[in-house]
Amino acid sequence: MSSKDRLFVPLSTKWFNEYKRGRKKAELRTLGHQYNVNNVVKGRRVELRRGYSTKESLWGTITSVWTIRSIAQLCKEELREIIPDESQSNREWLESYEEKNNYTGFIVFRIKLDG
Description:
The protein has a single domain, classed as Archaeosine Trna-guanine Transglycosylase, Chain: A, domain 4, CATH 2.30.130.30. Helices cover 25% and strands 31% of the residues. It has helices at 13-20, 76-82, 88-101, and strands spanning 7-11, 26-30, 45-50, 57-68, 106-113. Strands 1-3-4-5-2 form a 5-stranded mixed sheet.
């Protein structure tokens, strides 16, 4: 597969390691140019990379996709797939961040890693 065909998802070391450990199963991104229902589709290959400049990557496939207008729409189980150490403070931080930045929506996608 060409690297052009994959969805590139840069991650901080913390979240990259959560995927690597098998604890993180889904990604939450703001709707925009790269992350939208035309680009994030079930069956598309995904490269999860630790940062932008490293070669350390995990590969997988998108298994499901949905959009939400607000973080508050996520149930506890869905939030735990996005933030494995989900706590009330994490949810409150996300909701506060959402409010401050006036986002109009989010896309959530589950990823099944290779291997």
